[in-house]
Amino acid sequence: MAAAWGRYAFRGKNYRLVDLPGTYSLKTRSAEEAVARDFLCLGGVDGAVVVCDATCLERNLNLVLQTIEVMPRTVVCVNLLDEAARRGVQVNLETLSHRLGVPVVGTSAGRGEGLEELLAAVERVVEENLQAPPPRYLPPIERALEELTAALEGRTGPLPARWAAARLLEGDEGALDTLRQGAGEAWQEEKADECQEKVRRDLARAGLEGRAVGERMASCLVWTGEDLAHAAVSAPAGDDWRDRRLDRLLTSRSTGIPLMLLLLAGILWLTIAGANYPSQCLSDGLFWLGEQFRVLLRTAGAPLWLREALIQGVWRVLVWVVSVMLPPMAIFFPLFTLLEDFGYLPRVAFVLDHAFRRARACGKQALTMCLASPGDAASACGG
């Protein structure tokens, strides 16, 4: 999966900026997460910028904490401040920066506001080598991490020893493969396994063993993100209560899947039914233009083979593709964007994650399957 990149100059220095695939986590449950994590670990980066949505900051803070753990030189960009202000949401950037230990810059990229401050923060982090403290876990896990980090010090190459220790405790095989690749010859598997067994015995005596360790570590990051959001974000009264009610309705086992099927079926029906009339109008108009073009070519004395090649071979194919594909896409993708803005798509991924993981996939891939529907519907209409 390729990543987009570009260059920019700031205060006489050149920087290369790489846009990684969008993700909410660095856990290796999808290709996007693996690409983002591997680039941070193996890409030789000097720093990271995590772009967060000010209207739903809590959802993005989990990624911020995971990024800080692997790349301490991090800048947090809180974007869409103008949209948040319209909704009555206020973000205290100073509080968030103090609690995270990294520069936090507010922007409204659509208006070009805050971009100069963001570039200055990136320069400061890179030039001064500002490193944020890693996120904290439960006391038994912290003790295990300290012991394991000390044993791994100097054996993880350019990667932070604490990050490597955390991935060993979690048993994240994808991250461990990346760790072995990044550490190279410095990595000593036997030494790591020996120390890991010892700290796991200590954790077992504290009531944490097996998958419970990774689950508690993930929970700690979620709890930390919630705490940060409550400290730095103020929203109109009632919003949190309304979100909790929606979560119970849209993610419960009894109502989540039926409501999801009804909603997606409704969007599919609206896409197909709503596209019929504009598709017909577009087809009629473009075919009329084709006939006028045919008359123009005949009047100009173009040979028959050229007229037929241009009208039958080029124009008619273009008309079918545009009239069949464009209207469904023009309806479906704005509707899908609205679902994303309302926070429903992450809830769909959460509801389906368990079922998809049984097929060695993740819940977010359900959204990719949904995105195929306008093309399939258009193909069916065209056929």
Topology, element by element:
Elements: E1 4-10, E2 13-19, H1 31-42, E3 48-53, H2 57-70, E4 74-79, H3 81-86, E5 90-91, H4 93-100, E6 104-106, H5 115-128, H6 139-152, H7 161-170, H8 173-183, H9 189-205, H10 211-232, E7 233-234, H11 239-251, H12 256-299, H13 304-341, H14 344-357, H15 365-371, H16 373-382
Short description:
The chain has 383 residues and is mostly helical.
Folded structure, characterized:
The chain is mainly alpha-helical and 383 residues long. It contains 16 helices and seven strands. Strand 1 (4-10) and strand 2 form a beta hairpin. Helix 1 runs parallel beside helix 8 (173-183), helix 11 crosses helix 12 (256-299) and helix 12 packs antiparallel against helix 13 (304-341). The longest helix is centred in the C-terminal third of the chain and has 44 residues, at 256-299. It is elongated. The two termini are 32 Å apart. The relative contact order is 0.08.
Beta content comes to 5-15%
Q: What sequence of helices (H) and strands (E) makes up the elements?
A: EEHEHEHEHEHHHHHHEHHHHHH
> How far is the N terminus from the C terminus?
32 Å
Structural class: mainly alpha
Shape: elongated
Assign a percent range to the helix content: 55-70%
Strand order of the largest sheet: 3-4-6
GO molecular function: ferrous iron transmembrane transporter activity; GTP binding
Organism: Candidatus Flavonifractor intestinipullorum
Pfam families: FeoB_Cyto (PF17910), FeoB_N (PF02421)
Keywords: Membrane, Transmembrane, Transmembrane helix
